[in-house]
Automatic annotation (TrEMBL):
The active site is at K52 (charge relay system), S132 (charge relay system), S156 (acyl-ester intermediate). Heterotrimer of A, B and C subunits. InterPro entries: Amidase (IPR000120), Amidase_CS (IPR020556), Amidase_dom (IPR023631), AS_sf (IPR036928), GatA (IPR004412). The keyword Ribonucleoprotein does not apply. One of its GO terms (molecular function) is transferase activity. Belongs to the amidase family. GatA subfamily. It comes from the Bacteria. One of its GO terms (biological process) is translation. It catalyses: L-glutamyl-tRNA(Gln) + L-glutamine + ATP + H2O = L-glutaminyl-tRNA(Gln) + L-glutamate + ADP + phosphate + H(+). This is Glutamyl-tRNA(Gln) amidotransferase subunit A.
Length: 453
């Protein structure tokens, strides 16, 4: 049934880059066989999921939604996807995304925009599903799959989840192995689940996470049984409301939903306290230096020799082949990030930009540390607005970057953060609320999310 829905919705949503119905069926057959033999089944036994096309999948094209990787078929499997298959999940297909996970609306994909299944009341204009995990959010929101993988470097799980009324959690940096995930900004990249609710996210995260010696920043910690610890009772828990997140330019609908969230958590027994994260306003500029800097280094490997596309004009030498391949293979947003990244890393500007951004990053981590002396979990909006029509921000990169204003602080600090649905705005569009936890305290984040949902 899911395979049929994926095929039927492709023209309308463009959520998938390739469908792999046979993989989903194989997993279902394997579960049937294991059940017949009386074997214990994995936590995700028989669950068909969508895989963001940033995860390397053995024998299945992996593109990061870029022309430069078109036709690249990995000979290896990412650790996260391998963990999911081990737990019994099956793959419905590879999901569309912003090219190299750079974007907030899924408009930078070489394979075309993803279209949100939502519409504003009284309008048929196509809306952005958020980004970069826009294929994942659209597919789960449209119920093409019960769950999907996402990755979050500066909000790419949380913002699309908020835009489409689903739940998504970015765990503590290092919980999920980065091995086999196309690298964007390695010190920020983190995989996580996107699903219909908190419980499904907890089940899936347990299957994705775990120590991996192949990733040097992988956390060598046992994966907690988050599902066993799920409990929406907030009594004795303190919820911090960061005063600097009351920013100009935030929709009144968003502020109202934030107040609702405060009331729901108070009703669940929580004590509400105001906290301060004084360096919040520097988070976005610091992120847009650190992330492009790392990206410019990570993307140097796409040279026309090793993967996917090669553009070799007649009589071209090696340098000319690199240039031609990159010119043809990278999209505009990717080129913009590479140029920003190489600029802030260049000898003359390194101290002024890159080092300064790293210092800001430390201050932001310290802000959170200080705030968590006074609270157990932080509640904030996920985004400053609800979903917007496709095309509305696509030629204004700064307006697009502003979408990430509430998401990037937790990314810079490596903290677990989740977006949960929090009702609809005046136009009938979904809004999300964000819960940010202490490092390693996914349980606290999930439980507060459960109290809201
Ligand atoms: N929207 C942000 C960016 O464009 C975040 C991307 C992400 O988390 N992958 O960089």
């Amino acid at each position: 049934a899911f395979n049929a829905n994926v095929a039927a919705a492709q023209d309308a949503l463009n959520a998938f880059i390739v469908a792999t119905p046979e993989k989903a069926l194989e997993a279902a057959d394997a579960v049937d066989a294991a059940r017949a033999k009386g074997e214990t089944l994995g936590k995700m036994a028989g669950v068909p999921i969508g895989m963001k096309d940033l995860f390397a999948t053995q024998g299945v094209q992996t593109t990061a939604a870029s022309h430069i990787l078109e036709g690249f078929t990995p000979e290896y499997e990412s650790t996260v996807s391998a963990n999911l298959w081990k737990a019994g999940a099956g793959m419905l297909g590879k999901l569309n995304l912003d090219q190299f996970a750079m974007g907030s609306s899924n408009e930078t994909s070489y394979f075309g925009n993803v279209i949100s299944p939502w519409r504003k009341q009284g309008s048929n204009a196509a809306l952005a599903p958020g980004g970069s995990s826009g294929g994942s959010s659209a597919a789960v929101a449209a119920r093409l799959c019960p769950a999907a993988t996402g990755t979050d470097t500066g909000g790419s799980i949380r913002q699309p989840a908020a835009f489409t009324g689903i739940t998504g959690i970015k765990p503590t940096y290092g919980r999920c192995s980065r091995w086999g995930i196309v690298a964007f900004a390695s010190s920020l990249d983190q995989a996580g689940p996107m699903a219909r609710d908190v419980t499904d996210c907890a089940i899936m995260l347990e299957s994705m996470a775990g120590f991996d010696p192949k990733d040097s920043t992988s956390l060598d910690l046992t994966v907690p049984e988050w599902t066993d610890g799920l409990d929406p009772d907030m009594s004795g828990r303190r919820v911090g409301i960061p005063k600097e997140y009351r920013m100009e330019g935030t929709d009144s609908d968003i502020l109202e939903s934030w107040d609702n969230g405060i009331a729901w958590l108070r009703d669940a027994g929580a004590e509400i306290v105001e906290v301060s994260l004084p360096h919040t306003k520097y988070a976005l500029p610091a992120y847009y230096i650190v992330a492009p800097a790392e990206a410019s280094s990570n993307l140097a490997r796409y040279d026309g020799v090793r993967y996917g596309l090669r553009d070799l004009p007649d009589g071209a030498n090696l340098q000319e082949m690199y240039a031609a391949t990159r010119a043809a293979g990278f999209g505009d947003e990717v080129k913009r990030r590479i140029m920003i990244g190489t600029y802030v890393l260049s000898a003359g500007f390194y101290d002024a930009y890159y080092n300064q951004a790293q210092r800001v990053r430390t201050l932001i981590s310290q802000d959170f540390k200080a705030a968590f002396e006074h609270c157990d979990v932080i509640l904030a909006p996920t985004t400053p607005t609800a979903s917007f029509p496709l095309g509305e921000n696509s030629d204004d990169p700064l307006a697009m970057y502003l979408n990430d204003v509430f998401a990037v602080p937790a990314s810079l600090a490596g903290l677990p953060a989740m977006s949960v649905p929090a009702g609809l705005n005046k136009d009938g569009l979904p809004l999300g609320l964000q819960l940010i936890g202490k490092a390693f305290d996914e349980q606290g984040v999930l439980n507060a999310g459960l109290a809201i949902e």
